[in-house]
Amino acid sequence: MLTNVAAGKSSNRRQSSLPGVQVSNSGQNGSSGSQVSSFFTVLASKRLAKQAAHKVYSRRSPSASSHFELELARRQPSYRMEPRRRLDIEHIKSTVEVIINRRMKGFHYSADVAGIVTKIITEEIKDAVKEMNFDRYKLVCMVSLGQRQGQGVRISSRCVWDPSTDNHCTYSWSNGKVFCTATVFGMYHE
């Protein structure tokens, strides 16, 4: 949109949605003008993407909220401060070991495939631990997969939890060319 100057002449400046900012459309290929216009293009595309996501979410929200209410109805608070059955870390670790050894057997690293394999291993581990029926535990599984080329890799985590009920296990696998580390966290939720 073009704005008029006080003298009545038309200007090649448009009013920005940000206060005090004007963007030049003079047709010159100056780097600052193109940077500003590309900045506003990015902002506009983000705004449109956010609006589209909100529309999709608002269409899905009735079914999502009914699913959430059903989940709340099934899981009433137990008011138990201690779990009936604690995490069996050794059993979880042996299960993680079996899954990783099976998936990584004969695996050759490829950057295109590594992300997909990581997701598959993560889902398999989560499903296997969920089948162990540790009631009222929230599970988090993190898998790191990478190529060994002489670089150093350090994987660490920090948690705030109750040491009497919450726990974790880690299993690391490697051969000469690939490494894989999986960590499963279990947090008791009353």
The helix content is 40-55%
Helix run count:
3
Helix/sheet category: alpha+beta
Low-confidence stretches: 1-11, 16-36
- Name the overall outline: flat
Kindly state the number of beta strands: 5
Major beta sheet, specifics? 3 strands, antiparallel
CATH superfamily of the largest domain: Tctex-1
**Kindly, what is the distance between the CA atoms of the first and last residues, rounded to a whole number of angstroms?**
58 Å
Major sheet strand order: 3-5-4
Give the SSE order as H and E letters.
EEHHHEEE
Name the CATH architecture of the largest domain.
2-Layer Sandwich
Rounded mean pLDDT score: 78
List the domain count as a whole number.
Answer: 2
Content of β-strand: 15-25%
Q: What is the CATH domain class of the largest domain?
A: Alpha Beta
The fold-level CATH name of the largest domain is Ribosomal protein S3 C-terminal domain
Rg, rounded, reads 27 Å
Quick synopsis:
GO terms for molecular function: dynein intermediate chain binding. This protein has 190 residues and is an alpha+beta fold.
